[in-house]
Amino acid sequence: MTTQDGRPGDEHPEDRPKDRPEDSPDEAPPPRRSEGDDPTGEDPTSDDESRRLSVEDLLAAIDETRSDSESTPAQSPEADADAQPRDESSDARPDRDIFGRTPKHSPDWSHRRGEPRVFVLLWTIYLMFCAAAMFARSGGMVAFDPVAFRPSARLGLLMMMVGVGLLWPLMRLSQAMPREGGVRATLKDAGIIIVTGHALILPQLWLARWDGQVVVALSVLFVLWTLLTGAVIACTQGPPTPGQEGDPRTGNRAVGVLCCLALVLSGGLVALADAGREPGADAIASRPARMLSPMTAIYEIARDRPWTGRAAMIGPAHRASLGATALAAAGAWGVALVACRRRRNET
To answer: Where are the domains of the chain?
Structure first.
């Protein structure tokens, strides 16, 4: 109730509501609760640490929840279903060659770092060693003389045939079997050997002054014995294997190495047994027994025949021997193909 001038005044007893009880002087009004009081009625300043949550802990929990929600964006169920594990190599830098180019049809250049590139390097180094030995033997000549150089040329070609008949099978049959199969891998090796090996054969037209038919006969001999040795390697290595590593076939390796040794050494033993006999009265008489081994066939084809008026000469016996070697190489490759196909059908 206010006064006439607008100031609050005492309430008149008649203005009070009839149902309102009189205020008891003994009854104290209930205490007002502050904003920070616990609604449960418990004292917030009690010693119970499990019921008390500090402001710092609350703020830290809120910040941690925010960081987790920002670091893990929401994904739809379709995205989760389609998600696949990512390859760690995809996050790496792209593989480039020496020209800065990236591969087009593969993730990296690993297909150009393995075989047969390592074999190409090793075989080329071996050919360089053969050429160095060939020229070192004739390095004492004051003036270059083809007649004096011919023994060195035969030595270099002999070392090359040793690499084909012995070192090549020993190397390949001591490694893990190729996943692509013995036939395909051996054909690659044979192509490399044949192409690079002619770098020592063809220059003999000018270095040793041999006739063209002699150089052609040496080339054919080299090719045929490469194919014959390769057939043994291909048959030993077997068909392609689907696994990450080739089939060991440890037992077949020993058989393959023994076959290659027999091909090379058996003909040499026969040639040594025939070395004591003199050729017939024919001036161009040859020794066909020497054509049974690639080591002795080099000396038989490139043998000096000064009585003919030529440095070397090819006769009918040489051609027949080369034809027989070609038939043997073709038959060996036929056996290798059949054996590899049969093994593949069995597996």
So the answer is: 113-346
| CB atoms closer than 10 angstroms to residue 108 | 14
Averaged pLDDT for residues 97-107: 73
**Rounded Cα gap, residues 252 and 115, in angstroms:** 22
- The DSSP code for 93 is P
Q: Are 189 and 172 in contact (CB under 8 A)?
A: yes
Q: At what angle do helices 212-237 and 146-162 cross, to 10 degrees?
A: 10
Looking at residue 320, the DSSP 8-state letter turns out to be: H
Helix runs in the chain, H state only: 55-71, 77-82, 88-91, 117-137, 146-162, 168-172, 182-201, 204-207, 212-237, 250-274, 294-301, 316-346
Q: Is the pLDDT of residue 20 over 70?
A: no
Amino acid at 307: W
Q: What is the pLDDT of residues 247-282, one digit of tens each?
A: 555 457 888 888 888 888 887 777 676 655 555 444
